[in-house]
Amino acid sequence: MVAPEPPRRPDLASDGLRRFIRRGARPKIVRLLARTRPEDVAELFGRLTPSEQLAIYRILVTEFPDGAGEVLSELDEPDQQALLEGMTRREIGQVLGAMPVDDAVEIVESLPDQLEERVLEVVGEPQLAEVREHLTYDDESAGRLMVPAFVALPETATVEQAIAELRSSDQLDNIFYLYVVDAEGVLVGVASLRQLLLAPPGRRLGEVMTREVVRVRVDTDQEVVAELVARYDLLAIPVTDAADRLVGIVTVDDVIDVVSDEATEDFYKLVGTSDDELIYQDRAVRVAGLRLPWLLGNMVGGVLAGMLLEWFQVSFKEALFLLTFVPVIMGMGGNVGSQTSTIAVRGLATGRIPVGRRRTGRFLWQQLKVGMVIGVTCSLLVGGGAFLIQRNPYYALVVGGALLAAIVVASLNGALIPILFRRLGIDPAVASGPLVTTTNDITGILIYFGLAALLIDRLVR
């Protein structure tokens, strides 16, 4: 499956495939697929019905087994699921067996439980032993992510021997560095292709290699792997076992996928759901179950805030005009808190906010200053509006002062709660849901009515 000519318009190509399917023109389908890249075939699948997808994919499995795996990797999870559900055990084994191990593992672990069990039966086949071994590693770990294909030589080998080994290797897609190991397979160094090309042919690898190797263990979290690759601008990072033996590498293309997946996961968590919605999109009860915990948490927070409002309403019967600015104070506190917590969650995920006392303190101080600037600006505007409504400077002071305090507190909450969650080993993205929202609503009401209680004699005259 190559592309020697410019790609066709997707709608024209998909219409052509439909016509060929209706006519049973298999040779024409094969010729069209042979001229189309796997990525473009995957795009075409989005324009076909499930039955048409399955018919085309079965031809791919037979005629282009390597390309079939690439197409499956490029498809969205619901389309992957639909294809695997319609395939035979032999077809599934053929496709997964031709795929890179890391891609096959990613597909298997993304499937719903029942379908995953069915596919795992196929994974038990001898030709898929590497896939089965990868599935023993923890989810979202370097072991799950790594490719067990790499080139490693002893440090006594010469540069000339190393280049010859690289040329004869069948792992050309994964050759970014040459790794150097001792007799036990322990990683002792690494040499870039540039180092090898510039070194004299007779030099030993031990004299050319870099001994300070950035590496990860098989149980290292994939977010940490992505952070290290980004920090040191690596094309691949070696993965070692508990004895420091080299067992695989994680390549930059997989790291890009990790960054995208983690960003997507954080985005879903920020709104209280998960990407499982895409898999179970035809099951309303299942999707509702994914959303309800976050919404119920917000509902509880809303009930608590409402109870406070009712209590203060009884206490301030003669100052019901105070309720006018309650939505503004609650809304501004919630919005500022959400903004700050989003920045905090993303900063923690990318490593820009390390969990260290000095760096964390700097971030909190920065958010405090930002909250002060926003709070002063908004409090002057809203306080001025409150004065125009009641012609009472103390009312303006209560409204403006409460809004300033609520915004500053919301900034600190939004920054501090995700950091505390990270230190407790809880995903910080969860903190940007009901906890931040509820905390800011309650503190905003308490600040507002607490300040009003101090000046109640000046407000009611």
- Rg is 30 Å
Beta-strand residue fraction: 5-15%
Helix amount, in percent? Answer: 55-70%
> Please, how many helices?
23
What string, H for helix and E for strand, traces the elements in order?
HHHHHHHHHHHEHEEHHEHEEHHHHHHHH
Topology, number of strands: 6
Mean pLDDT value:
81
| Major β-sheet strand ordering | 1-2-3
Overall morphology? globular
Largest sheet: 3 strands, mixed
Measured between the Cα atoms of the first and last residue, the distance is: 84 Å
Which consecutive residue ranges, at least 5 long each, have pLDDT under 50?
2-7
Structural class of the secondary elements?
mainly alpha
Walk me through the structure:
Helix content is 66%, strand content 6%. It starts with 9 loop residues before the first helix and ends with a helix. It has helices at 10-23, 26-34, 38-45, 50-63, 65-74, 77-86, 89-98, 101-109, 113-123, 129-134, 142-145, 159-168, 193-198, 205-208, 222-232, 252-270, 276-279, 284-315, 326-350, 357-390, 393-423, 434-454, 456-459, and strands spanning 152-154, 177-181, 187-192, 216-217, 236-240, 246-251. Helix 3 (38-45) crosses helix 5 (65-74), helix 16 runs antiparallel to helix 19 (326-350) and helix 19 (326-350) packs parallel to helix 21. It is mainly α.
Describe the secondary-structure layout.
Layout: H1 10-23, H2 26-34, H3 38-45, H4 50-63, H5 65-74, H6 77-86, H7 89-98, H8 101-109, H9 113-123, H10 129-134, H11 142-145, E1 152-154, H12 159-168, E2 177-181, E3 187-192, H13 193-198, H14 205-208, E4 216-217, H15 222-232, E5 236-240, E6 246-251, H16 252-270, H17 276-279, H18 284-315, H19 326-350, H20 357-390, H21 393-423, H22 434-454, H23 456-459
Parallel strand pairs: 1-2, 4-5
Antiparallel strand pairs: 2-3, 5-6
